[in-house]
Specification:
Chain A: GO terms for molecular function: transferase activity. Chain A has two helices and four strands, in the order βαβαββ. Chain A has 80 residues and is of the alpha+beta class. In chain B, the strands form eight sheets. In chain B, strands 5-2-1-9-20 form a five-stranded parallel beta sheet. A four-stranded parallel beta sheet of chain B has the order 13-12-11-17. A three-stranded antiparallel beta sheet of chain B has the order 6-7-8.
Chain lengths: 80, 381
Amino acid sequence: MSQTDIEPETTVDARGAACPGPLMDLIGAVRGAESGAVVRLLSDTERSLTDVPEWVEETDNELLATEEGDDHHAFYVEKA
Amino acid sequence: MTERVIVVGGGTGGTVLANDLADRLGAEIDAGDVEVTLVNDGPDHVYKPVWLYVPFGQREPEDGRRRLRELVDDRVAVRVDRVTDIDTDAGQVRYHEAPEPIDYDYLVLATGSTLAPEEIPGLAEGGHDYYSESGAEALREELLSFTEGHLVLSVVGTPHMCPAAPLEFVFMADDWLRERGLREDVDITYTYPIQRVHGNPHIAEWARPLMDERDIEVETFFNAESVDPDAGTITSMEGTDIDYDLLVAIPPHRGIDLIEEAGLGDDGWVDVDKHTLEAEAAENVYALGDTAATGVPNAGSVAHYQAGVVGQRIASQIRGRPATATYDGKTLCFVETGMDAASFVEFDYERPPSPAPPSEKLHWSKLAYNESYWLTARGLL
């Protein structure tokens, strides 16, 4: 997995969780975060590659980066 | 030396397990080699699915209550008390009513879900629920006299108990209002946090056309952020406002704080191996039902099947044999699709659900199961 230089305030490790667990874990973390904070989601569910961008598009939050790895993906979401 | 098994929680998982252990280890218990204690914070066992029918005036909360002592084998010690501390390093728990810590050889956590409406500002004041006895009774008062306006069912938190129940509620409300000639005067909206109407895509694909046919409005990607009880508005993180006249919400759920304090998992859910149900952070500790973070639905059938697995594993360990029983994710669920029709799903970790066509027979099967549930709790069915 390539590395970004984004420093997340919070990391949500949802590896092993079944869908829609990772997205709901992300939403829960964003709900509790301060405005401007970056939440990193780790997920090994392929579906997160569509779920997360779709949800971010529905909100004012921003998907700063997605790292696609062999065994899991990392999503960096900045809270609006 | 006596092997001590402590089961915490007298819901479906804990009660079925206690009876399962009494059955498997009867001889050892009678000989004084094994002691099984079931701890619950009240004297009653509660069958929560009854609450779905309470708002429609069809059942009473008492229908879902029985004395735990009457349901559990006499060889099990039932303790009405609260566990206040778990020390998995020492292998001890502490009870509220007893100052000295108690040693355990095997600890099973079946403490279930608690509701956390306070996490969403305004929800406790503005919303109703049927996920608690008091909530179901309060909703009954509102629903029985609700003749016109906007009924909103909002799934605020997941995971939550019985993932089918929000769908069941709107299907039943739709049918019930039609039967009473009120449906044209009541709009129904269903909201869900993700981009479909249910967490499981197969159930979502089945349910969505039924909702469209029956004129149930759907708002997906709706994560409730706040409720304004005075204005009658629920607002989502995604920036959508919905006006309501009657708000029925599935509140956020949490496990008990004790689990996080014991380092067994976050939000009150125990991190477990999803096949063996053993806690990842401690030896000889199991979790089952809602308490176990397995990713399967928080449903009574899950707790029932998991209890059989944990019972087998503990009995094997006590007898010095390898524990081979595993849980395969099996879930069974009836889904009411109206006041006199229901569907049925069965699935596991490998096989996805395929909902059966709704029928009256399945509806009566669900009601028959609700009646025979007490045999399940006793470990007979």
